[in-house]
Protein backbone atom coordinates (compact mmCIF):
# COMPACT_ATOMS: atom_id res chain seq x y z
CA UNK A 1 0.00 0.00 0.00
CA UNK A 2 1.31 3.43 -0.95
CA UNK A 3 -0.02 6.63 0.58
CA UNK A 4 0.28 10.14 -0.83
CA UNK A 5 -0.68 13.06 1.39
CA UNK A 6 -1.47 16.51 0.03
CA UNK A 7 -3.32 19.71 0.83
CA UNK A 8 -1.03 21.38 3.30
CA UNK A 9 -0.14 25.04 3.13
CA UNK A 10 0.00 28.35 4.92
CA UNK A 11 -3.20 29.60 6.53
CA UNK A 12 -4.08 32.27 9.05
CA UNK A 13 -5.37 31.37 12.48
CA UNK A 14 -9.06 30.64 12.32
CA UNK A 15 -8.82 29.40 8.76
CA UNK A 16 -9.46 25.99 7.23
CA UNK A 17 -7.63 23.40 5.17
CA UNK A 18 -8.49 19.97 3.84
CA UNK A 19 -5.81 17.34 3.70
CA UNK A 20 -6.14 14.42 1.34
CA UNK A 21 -4.51 11.00 1.41
CA UNK A 22 -4.55 8.97 -1.79
CA UNK A 23 -4.00 5.27 -1.36
CA UNK A 24 -2.92 2.74 -3.95
CA UNK A 25 -2.09 -0.94 -3.83
CA UNK A 26 -3.75 -3.88 -2.16
CA UNK A 27 -5.97 -3.06 0.78
CA UNK A 28 -7.17 -6.44 1.97
CA UNK A 29 -4.80 -6.25 4.92
CA UNK A 30 -5.68 -2.70 5.95
CA UNK A 31 -7.99 -2.24 8.92
CA UNK A 32 -7.53 1.35 9.99
CA UNK A 33 -6.38 4.72 8.71
CA UNK A 34 -5.25 7.76 10.61
CA UNK A 35 -3.67 11.16 10.56
CA UNK A 36 -0.68 12.05 12.69
CA UNK A 37 1.36 15.21 12.97
CA UNK A 38 4.85 16.14 14.03
CA UNK A 39 5.92 19.61 15.04
CA UNK A 40 9.61 20.59 15.09
CA UNK A 41 11.40 19.03 18.02
CA UNK A 42 8.39 16.99 19.05
CA UNK A 43 7.31 13.40 18.67
CA UNK A 44 4.79 12.32 16.09
CA UNK A 45 1.33 12.39 17.63
CA UNK A 46 -2.05 10.98 16.81
CA UNK A 47 -4.58 13.42 15.39
CA UNK A 48 -7.49 11.37 14.10
CA UNK A 49 -8.42 7.85 13.06
CA UNK A 50 -11.08 5.92 11.19
CA UNK A 51 -11.83 2.36 10.15
CA UNK A 52 -10.53 1.85 6.62
CA UNK A 53 -14.01 0.93 5.39
CA UNK A 54 -15.51 3.95 7.14
CA UNK A 55 -17.55 4.26 10.30
CA UNK A 56 -16.60 5.46 13.76
CA UNK A 57 -14.13 8.30 13.98
CA UNK A 58 -11.59 9.16 16.67
CA UNK A 59 -9.87 12.40 17.58
CA UNK A 60 -7.19 13.72 19.84
CA UNK A 61 -8.61 16.02 22.48
CA UNK A 62 -6.67 18.93 21.01
CA UNK A 63 -8.54 18.78 17.70
CA UNK A 64 -11.94 17.45 18.74
CA UNK A 65 -14.72 19.65 17.41
CA UNK A 66 -12.42 21.34 14.88
CA UNK A 67 -11.16 18.50 12.67
CA UNK A 68 -13.19 15.91 10.77
CA UNK A 69 -11.83 12.71 9.28
CA UNK A 70 -13.61 10.88 6.48
CA UNK A 71 -12.94 8.21 3.90
CA UNK A 72 -14.10 7.46 0.39
CA UNK A 73 -13.44 3.81 -0.35
CA UNK A 74 -14.58 4.12 -3.97
CA UNK A 75 -11.75 6.59 -4.55
CA UNK A 76 -9.30 5.07 -2.03
CA UNK A 77 -9.08 8.41 -0.27
CA UNK A 78 -8.92 9.56 3.33
CA UNK A 79 -9.49 13.21 4.20
CA UNK A 80 -8.89 15.48 7.15
CA UNK A 81 -10.98 18.62 7.17
CA UNK A 82 -9.40 21.12 9.53
CA UNK A 83 -11.24 24.21 10.74
CA UNK A 84 -10.60 26.93 13.32
CA UNK A 85 -6.91 26.33 12.91
CA UNK A 86 -4.54 27.53 15.60
CA UNK A 87 -0.81 28.29 15.47
CA UNK A 88 -0.22 25.21 17.62
CA UNK A 89 -1.65 23.08 14.80
CA UNK A 90 1.48 23.89 12.79
CA UNK A 91 3.21 20.62 11.91
CA UNK A 92 3.94 18.13 9.20
CA UNK A 93 0.85 15.96 8.83
CA UNK A 94 1.13 12.32 7.88
CA UNK A 95 -1.52 9.85 6.82
CA UNK A 96 -1.11 6.27 7.90
CA UNK A 97 -2.79 2.92 7.42
CA UNK A 98 -2.34 -0.54 8.80
CA UNK A 99 -3.72 -3.98 9.44
CA UNK A 100 -2.46 -4.32 13.02
CA UNK A 101 -3.92 -1.00 14.10
CA UNK A 102 -7.44 -0.90 15.40
CA UNK A 103 -9.49 2.16 14.35
CA UNK A 104 -8.43 5.06 16.53
CA UNK A 105 -5.09 3.48 17.41
CA UNK A 106 -2.74 6.15 18.73
CA UNK A 107 0.46 4.17 18.62
CA UNK A 108 2.71 5.10 15.73
CA UNK A 109 4.23 1.62 15.61
CA UNK A 110 0.89 -0.06 14.90
CA UNK A 111 0.63 1.47 11.44
CA UNK A 112 2.40 -0.26 8.57
CA UNK A 113 2.09 2.31 5.81
CA UNK A 114 2.86 6.04 5.86
CA UNK A 115 2.52 8.91 3.46
CA UNK A 116 5.35 11.36 2.92
CA UNK A 117 3.84 14.18 4.98
CA UNK A 118 2.41 17.54 4.11
CA UNK A 119 3.31 20.76 5.94
CA UNK A 120 0.60 22.83 7.58
CA UNK A 121 1.63 26.26 8.83
CA UNK A 122 -0.83 28.38 10.78
CA UNK A 123 0.14 32.00 11.25
CA UNK A 124 -1.11 34.10 14.15
N-to-C series of helices and strands: EEEEEEEEEEE
Q: What's the average pLDDT?
A: 94
How would you characterize the largest beta sheet?
7 strands, mixed
Discrete helix count:
0
Count of individual beta strands = 11
Terminal Cα span = 37 Å
Q: Over all CA atoms, what is the radius of gyration? A: 13 Å
Which structural class fits the helix and strand makeup?
mainly beta
Low-pLDDT ranges: none
| Percentage of residues in DSSP E strands | over 45%
Shape: globular
The helix fraction, in percent, is under 10%
Task: Describe the model.
The chain is mostly beta strands. It has no helices and 11 strands. It has strands spanning 2-6, 9-12, 17-24, 32-38, 45-51, 57-59, 67-72, 77-82, 91-98, 113-114, 118-123. A hairpin with a 5-residue loop joins strand 5 (45-51) and strand 6. It is globular. The termini are far apart.
Amino acid sequence: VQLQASGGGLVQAGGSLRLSCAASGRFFSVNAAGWFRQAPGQEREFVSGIRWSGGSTYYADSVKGRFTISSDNAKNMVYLQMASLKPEDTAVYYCAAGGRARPGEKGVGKYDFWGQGTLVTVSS
